[in-house]
Design a protein that fits this description.
3 domains, five-stranded mixed β-sheet, Beta-Lactamase, five-stranded antiparallel β-sheet, 11 helices, alpha+beta
């Protein structure tokens, strides 16, 4: 019973740890799932944009070849509105929705002042880069009318070298991001660097964002789940999870775990409460029982002693000559009276031992003499069961500090048990095994042994094993508990070994130090 609260607490702790482990596992799985979603999204978008840019480059190059005569006319007469309009119309046929265009020489100088004469410096820088190093890596170009990116193609022959420059609105790429953006994520094209710069999001180019600084904040950088390079451009595609997606999931996990754990905890608390209430009732019952037994035993001792003494006088003929039948009845009454006196004394001794009120007169004693005295005093008792005691010490003296009367009482209980529960015509062996610091006393019979289901209760009060042997019903289950209490009060320990149909050996160990 005492281990029951510990079992409940361990169960609650184990259940809590299991729930915690499940929550952690689910959270880790949620993170891995989101990482996989982000990686799949960025990889797919990066590949899609790269194919789109490659296709635009191919089409611009194809246009430069197919419309070379018209382009040459524009180069030769850059101020001609007719040729300029014809080129603009052709570009709209090839590239519906394009933003603007121009033509430049190989040093990056435009023939046409386009963008209403406000050609972006980034555009010019890209043309020069392409002219000098053949590098056409689109990036976002700001413009008052429309943020855009540029695609270029070379127009070369034996005499001339020119560059066709076509601009496309950033909304094309924003629509692509919006179409594939996963739930709980924000896809954006960024320029990598120490402080990544936002270029295009699913809402459009960066100028549509309601913010003063278009660089990613440290908090935003931490929310990046996946980044992929967009081949053929200066961009990276990044997937940022929403700021509360993981905290919301963790709150959900905590809520679900608490919904499971709290009822279990309440149930455990109720069980502990019921256990403690039952334990208190049991203790109260034990106290009441012990007090009742102590009171009854104390009140019975005096009249029982008087009755037993009177019966002894009658048996000895003090009241006159007794008939054989009367003498037999008085003998039966004497024996039962003696049993009651022993029971009362055992109850009183047990009560004193449990309450710590029993006095022990610790004196230097010779253990061999005490054992021999107990054997001699109980031979007559053993004879009624056709049992004899065999005690042959190898030493004359084994000194220790003890209360000889209490040791005698313990030995008597063990010897009478061996005689009572051993086989008839049995020899009970009593041996002493001294060592440097302890001495062991063994009492061994050749009886049927102790049942395995009773071994754990051998030293409990009022415990008796079930047995078909009529001799086993003559005790009250106090003898061995008294033995254990007496030996432990001497600083020793008690144990036993038993095998079915082989026998039982009880033993106790006592320290050999002598206190003057």
């Amino acid at each position: 019973m005492k281990s029951y609260p510990v079992f409940i607490l361990i169960t609650v702790a184990f259940f809590g740890l299991v729930l915690l482990w499940i929550a952690i596992a689910r959270n880790n799985e949620f993170i891995r799932h989101n990482e996989a979603v982000a990686q799949q999204a960025t990889a797919g978008v990066a590949d899609e944009i790269a194919r789109y840019i490659v296709n635009k480059k191919r089409l611009v190059k194809l246009f430069s070849k197919e419309q070379r005569p018209l382009l040459d006319k524009v180069i030769q007469q850059p101020d001609s509105e007719v040729y300029h309009q014809q080129l603009a119309d052709k570009l709209r046929e090839y590239f519906p929705g394009h933003f603007n265009f121009t033509i430049a020489d190989y040093e990056g100088r435009p023939y046409i002042d386009d963008f209403d004469g406000e050609m972006n410096m980034l555009c010019q820088a890209d043309i020069i880069e392409f002219a000098l190093h053949d590098m056409d890596s689109p990036r976002l170009h700001p413009h008052p009318f429309q943020y855009h990116f540029d695609i270029m193609a070379r127009m070369a022959d034996r005499k001339t070298h020119h560059i066709l420059f076509v601009s496309f609105g950033a909304d094309i790429l924003a629509d692509l991001l919006n179409n594939v953006q996963p739930a709980n994520y924000e896809l954006m094209l960024i320029l990598p660097g120490e402080k990544p710069l936002i270029e295009i999001t699913a809402d459009g180019p960066r100028n549509r964002l309601e913010r003063d600084d278009f660089h990613l904040m440290p908090e935003e950088v931490k929310r990046i789940m996946s980044v992929h390079r967009v081949q053929g451009t200066q961009w990276d595609i990044a997937a940022l999870h929403e700021s509360d997606v993981f905290t919301d999931f963790q709150k959900q996990l905590i809520s679900q775990s608490l919904m499971i754990f709290v009822p279990f905890l309440i149930f455990a608390i109720i069980m502990l409460y019921l256990y403690h209430r039952a334990e208190n009732l049991r203790r109260q019952a034990e106290v009441a029982r012990d007090e009742f037994l102590a009171t009854v035993s104390h009140e019975l001792r005096t009249p029982l002693t008087a009755i037993h003494g009177s019966l002894a006088l009658l048996a000895n003929g003090v009241g006159g000559q007794l008939s054989a039948k009367t003498a037999e009845l008085i003998d039966i009454a004497q024996k039962n009276g003696q049993r009651l006196i022993i029971l009362v004394n055992d109850l009183l001794d047990m009560r004193k031992l449990e309450s710590g009120k029993m006095d022990f007169d610790m004196q230097p004693v010779n253990l061999i003499e005490i054992v021999q005295h107990a054997v001699d005093e109980n031979r007559e008792y053993a004879r009624q069961f056709d049992v004899v005691y065999a005690f042959n010490p190898q030493q004359d003296e084994v000194l220790l500090s003890a209360d000889k009367n209490r040791l005698y009482q313990a030995l008597t209980n063990l010897l009478t048990n061996a005689a009572k529960y051993g086989n008839r015509n049995d020899t009970v062996q009593i041996t002493l095994m001294p060592s440097a610091h302890n001495v062991r006393v063994c009492i061994e019979d050749k009886g049927p042994g102790i049942p395995s289901d009773f071994k754990s209760r051998v030293f409990e009060k009022f415990s008796q094993s079930d047995s078909s042997d009529s001799r086993s019903g003559t005790g009250y289950g106090l003898g061995l508990s008294i033995v254990k209490a007496i030996i432990e009060a001497h600083g020793g320990s008690v144990g036993f070994e038993s095998q079915k149909d082989v026998g039982t050996k009880f033993y106790f160990d006592l320290p050999r130090h002598v206190t003057e």
